[in-house]
Design goal:
The complex is a heterodimer of chains A (about 210) and B (about 210).
Chain A (H helix, E strand, L loop, with lengths): L13 H14 L5 H19 L6 E3 L5 E3 L2 E9 L4 H12 L4 H5 L3 E9 L4 E9 L2 H11 L1 H8 L13 H8 L5 E4 L6 H21 L2
Chain B lengths: L13 H15 L4 H9 L1 H10 L4 E2 L5 E3 L2 E9 L3 H14 L6 H4 L2 E9 L4 E9 L2 H11 L1 H8 L13 H8 L5 E4 L6 H21 L1
């Protein structure tokens, strides 16, 4: 199902960029008018981005998925087991969208749960720090029961402690083709540290002004 | 298609929490063994979360929000296979870079995922604030880039079209749950803190 996207590359030669622009123009020749116009308008900045690819490289997040700087993406779509959709919706509604459990996994930036295709499938998408394997291990170590409560709603979930759990996730994960992160070098831990520093500096400045 | 998530609620009384726990036990009675066992094991945590009641808020027209950070999740059918191919090549050539999104100033992250043998596109972002303002920002700041990326979605009216917001709403699915590690940290505040952090380090270096 999933194909892995490009590994990091070096800055492009002008000629290579030119060639890609040519290929894009060919591909867009039969696109809707607005796309053709959009391409011409956006090309200069798009291609300066491509040429500066070194500035922010998309890399692999390990086993599957892609990463910008320290921040990786995980996107899973899985079919529900019978009755699973109803159970899960009830749990999520009752929790009112709260997952303080997520805080125990100290590498989790954000996480969404979305019911798709008339409640037949489920989308789970997260942004997290670092590599795929340690991330999954963290879930298994820190919030195993929460994981099982939620993921037992899906067809074939082997249980978070099962040796088959990583294969199950890989099978249902689809690596993103594009992944943008505003602050690719900011891990969850570093964001926490900066919030502390920011607060300390504010207090310090307040004291100076007293 | 889309149902809106509940609005923020106040801390709940013990009776409400007990009632909800009871409801969950009933629902999980016919869950797989793993799920049933996990429900009991995680019960103390669940009780705490249920009682806390700092709920997900909504992001305005559609979508969930935690603190200042909102989610937008959309699934768009491609109009043609050629359109899917165009977008895939474009994204591959950009090597996943979208530095243009920096110009919008309120985008935390953004992903493009091809679904169902390239017949549909999943687009997910985390962004600051309200839905309407966010879409307006895209329309003002990078309209051409957005038309380029989404032109092959079926029925895309163009980012400058008066129908654009209705089109997005029709394809957006509000998340039923949304977790954010730092819900009060906007993109702009993060940038400020990065500067403060750097300045403090330099100061300490000089003192030391």
């Amino acid at each position: 199902m999933a194909t892995q996207t490009a590994t990091p590359t070096k800055p492009k030669q002008d000629s290579a960029v030119e060639q890609k622009i040519q290929e894009l123009r060919t591909l867009f020749a039969d696109a809707p008018e607005m796309a053709k116009t959009g391409l011409e308008h956006a090309l200069p900045s798009l291609m300066s981005q491509a040429a500066e690819a070194q500035a922010s490289e998309t890399e692999s997040a390990g086993r599957i998925g892609i990463r910008q700087g320290t921040v990786s993406e995980l996107t899973v779509i899985a079919p529900f087991a019978p009755g699973g959709a109803k159970r899960l919706r009830a749990v999520l509604r009752l929790l009112n969208g709260n997952f303080s459990g997520g805080r125990k996994v100290g590498t989790l930036h954000n996480m969404r749960f979305v019911f798709v295709d008339n409640d037949t499938r489920f989308l789970f998408a997260t942004a997290y720090d670092g590599q795929w394997d340690p991330y999954i291990d963290d879930f298994a170590t820190k919030i195993p029961d929460e994981m099982d409560v939620i993921f037992s709603a899906f067809e074939g979930w082997p249980g978070i402690h099962s040796p088959k759990v990583k294969d199950w996730i890989v099978k249902h994960q689809i690596p993103a083709e594009g992944w943008y992160v505003a602050h690719p070098d900011l891990s969850v831990a570093e964001a926490g540290r900066l919030k502390h520093i920011g607060k300390a500096v504010d207090e310090f400045l307040d004291k100076l002004n007293e | 298609m889309a149902t809106q998530t509940p609005l923020a609620t106040k801390p709940k009384s013990d009776a409400v929490v007990e009632q909800r726990i009871q409801k969950l036990r009933e629902l999980y009675a016919d869950a797989p063994e793993i799920g049933k066992a996990a429900l009991e094991k995680t019960m103390p945590n669940l009780k705490r979360e249920l009682a806390a009641g700092t709920g997900t808020q909504n992001a305005g027209r559609i979508g969930a929000r935690q603190g200042k950070v909102s989610e937008l999740t959309g699934i768009f059918p491609f109009a043609t296979p050629a359109g899917a191919k165009r977008l895939r090549v474009l994204l591959q050539y950009l090597e996943g870079n979208f530095k243009l999104a920096d110009l919008v100033g309120t985008v935390h992250d953004m992903r493009f995922v091809f679904l169902d043998n390239d017949t549909r596109l999943l687009f997910c972002t985390a962004y600051d604030g309200d839905w309407d303002a966010y879409i307006d920002d895209f329309a003002t700041k990078i309209p051409d880039a957005l038309d380029l990326l989404f032109c092959d979605a079926e029925g895309w009216p163009g980012l400058r079209s008066p129908k654009i917001k209705d089109w997005i709403v029709a394809h957006q699915i509000a998340a039923d749950a949304w977790y954010v590690a730092s819900p009060n940290l906007t993109v702009a505040e993060t940038r400020r803190l990065e500067k403060v952090g750097k300045a403090v380090e330099e100061l300490l270096d000089q003192v030391g």
